[in-house]
Write a structure and sequence with these properties.
It is a single chain. The protein has nine helices and eight strands. A six-stranded parallel beta sheet has the order 3-2-1-4-5-6, sandwiched between helices. A two-stranded antiparallel sheet has the order 7-8. It has a single domain, classed as NAD(P)-binding Rossmann-like Domain (Rossmann fold), CATH 3.40.50.720. It has helices at 3-10, 27-38, 50-64, 78-88, 116-138, 169-187, 214-227, 231-243, 273-293, and strands at residues 18-22, 42-47, 68-72, 95-98, 142-146, 195-199, 250-256, 260-267. Helix 4 runs parallel beside helix 5 (116-138). Strand 7 (250-256) and strand 8 (260-267) form a beta hairpin.
Amino acid sequence: MNTEKWLKQNTQSLKGKLIAVTGTTGGIGKELCRYLANLGANLILLDRNTKRSNAFAEELRSTYSVTVCNYTLDLENFELVKNVTEHLKLMPIDLILHNAGAYSIPRKKCTTGFDNVFQINFVSPYYMIRELLPTLKSRHGRVVVVGSIAHNYSKSDPEDIDFSTRKASSKVYGNAKRYLMFSLFELFKNETDATLSITHPGITFTNITAHYPKLIFAVIKHPMKIIFMKPKTAALSILKGVFEPTPYHRWTGPKLFDIWGLPKQKNLKTCAEAESRYIGQTADKIYTLLTENN
């Protein structure tokens, strides 16, 4: 796998562009930011861990000579999400890249009334994207979202939108990613002033995979590092989204079985148009509820 050759053929200078990225303090997020900074992009880091974010921002500034600022952002905390979003709305952002996510975490209800896994992986990023869309449209910008093959583990349920009654982490996380991906497909379906890229990294060893019991994780972590792509390589699929939009119900990810290899855009056949429309309509209702009540 010739990464350097791929980068020369599939990327170009981002000098003068301002890109906001969520989840930059580990794994894929860090590698993405290094790629973006190396291409000349100025960055806004949006992370829950302020100390790590500060340190990484300083690393990027000193290594790549780009402008980097950072805000503390916990996607579970909707009040904080709103405050940070208001700051971002005042900035000339060309692209927002949503990478942050949470898989197997202690479950609870957020102040919005939604399950926290659903809040982190769908509600908060969707709200931010909707709020920032006017800025992106004025700059002919783009939204890049990290989806997941887990979206195919379940189908939406009108009786349990956020899967708060479910226990299986794969289904709860998959439902949230399904909402994020297909709500955005519907939102951008007829959009002409801004574009969308739905991407996914396949399977790679990051903090989000460290959700197994400690004993099991200790056994599997080394084989995982050998078998699956490293974050630096997996990040290429998301980087591809910075330069290539994905049309309705297409996404970009590893070309071999959605797990290995360089990025390739493919058709998504995992969600019928009727369900996709339902997800889009539900997302719009949630957004309206949040803006009216908050």
